[in-house]
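Postdoc handover notes: sequence design on the structure in folder B. Input tokens:
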């Protein structure tokens, strides 16, 4: 959707970013420390580019995820995916999954995609567009690299989430019951649409290139 925005707008907003420090992972002071859970993906490594397949420039399905190191005291897990570089005051929520089993596990490719007909679908919260499911990365052209934080939280015993909670509701519960967390960051950038590959210099002056 945002690929149709003019490059000039992306450049104008280049320094307008929510900031990684505003993600839930960075804002939440956990009692047992941070980064205790190892979150990984078979599609990309930490702080590396997310393949276009998982973005608005591809088929837009959610990437595969796996995690380990969940503490024994965990009773459930919560996943929150945020765009730390969205040009707005707070990071953009791309997905929330709640009531995940409280142990080491994984999500297959496309698991966060909304599927009303799938009885085994995850329990999903609301993204920033007030929908459920995976909101594919879709940065404005020319805005520069965006960092997408895949944040996993382990919760102590307590009531399960109901309905489709938003970030504020989830964060309030995490502040009371989270005992460990982990974060995987992937990046994605949509380059200027006006950039074109330069013609070889030999052709520009009318000289035939050497074969």
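Designed sequence:
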């Amino acid at each position: 959707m945002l690929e149709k925005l003019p490059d000039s707008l992306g450049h104008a907003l280049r320094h307008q970013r929510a900031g990684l420090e505003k993600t839930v992972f960075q804002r939440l002071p956990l009692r047992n420390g941070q980064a205790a859970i190892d979150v990984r993906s078979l599609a990309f490594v930490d702080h590396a580019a997310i393949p276009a397949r998982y973005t608005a420039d591809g088929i837009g399905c959610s990437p595969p995820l796996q995690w380990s190191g969940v503490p024994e005291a965990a009773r459930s897990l919560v996943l929150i995916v945020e765009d730390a570089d969205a040009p707005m005051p707070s990071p953009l929520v791309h997905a929330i999954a709640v009531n995940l089993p409280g142990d080491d596990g994984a999500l297959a490719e496309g698991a966060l995609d909304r599927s009303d007909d799938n009885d085994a679908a995850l329990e999903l919260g609301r993204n920033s567009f007030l929908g459920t499911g995976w909101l594919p990365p879709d940065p404005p052209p020319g805005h520069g690299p965006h960092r997408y934080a895949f944040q996993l939280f382990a919760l102590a015993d307590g009531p399960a989430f109901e309905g489709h909670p938003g970030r504020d509701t989830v964060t309030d519960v995490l502040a009371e019951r989270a005992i460990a967390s982990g974060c995987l960051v992937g990046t994605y950038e949509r380059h200027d649409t006006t950039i074109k590959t330069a013609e070889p210099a030999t052709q520009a002056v009318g000289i035939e290139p050497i074969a």
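Context for whoever picks this up: The chain has a mean pLDDT of 84. Don't rerun without checking with the PI first.
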